[in-house]
Amino acid sequence: MSSFQLNISPLKEPLGFIKVLEWVSSIFAFATCGGFKGKTEIQVTCSKPNETKTITAAFGYPFRLNEALIQAFPDANVCDVNWKNYVLIGDYSSSAQFYVTFAVFVFLYCLAALLLYVGDTNLYRDSRKLPMIDFVVTLVATFLWLVSTSAWAKALTDIKIATGHSIVKELPPCNQQEVTCSFGSVTSMGSLNVFVIFGFLNMILWGGNAWFVYKETSLHSLSNTSASHSQGGIPPPSGI
Predict the structure, then answer these.
(1) Superkingdom of the source (predicted)?
(2) I want to staple 155 with a disulfide (CB 3.0 to 4.6 A). Which of 80, 95, 162, 221 is the partner?
């Protein structure tokens, strides 16, 4: 029976080194989105009395904008409108949560794989099942990084639109003659753009690592054996 013995030499090889990069990159992937909080501001001008006030709507992960209440301080009523009855438009929680949840699972898988690499390298390489499982997971993860990141990139674009200048057109009170609304500002979403970048970076890392994981599988061993047999096989008998 094999026992756990720390051996960092696999981390110096592409198989282990890239897995470390995948582990670190997955942390940045879910951390940059999970803690995001922002707000959008609108300037509201009343005809009677002639005054301008600021109303805000706070939003953040998981980006259920349809639950982000419009708030006005210190009085909730501005221009005889109770703004607490209005919210932003859109629910993008499915894309955001899918991305974050998947990134967390990737983080845990990379951690488990690294423990196996450095703790019992012989068990991994002497087994026929473990490298094959690792290879299949790598291919599936590559595909899911593409799907989840693409879905989040589309959702982020819609979030920017829903919290940007178009918000003035979507709020019913802003279409009244007595009320004039103008877009004020919105929290920078640069960190969410990084969120997308790390998603595609993870896809590239996992796609590139598929080859090195494949080399550890029995499929690669069989292909090498077949190639050696074809090159060094028994020559055909000579003619009479």
Answers:
(1) Eukaryota
(2) 95
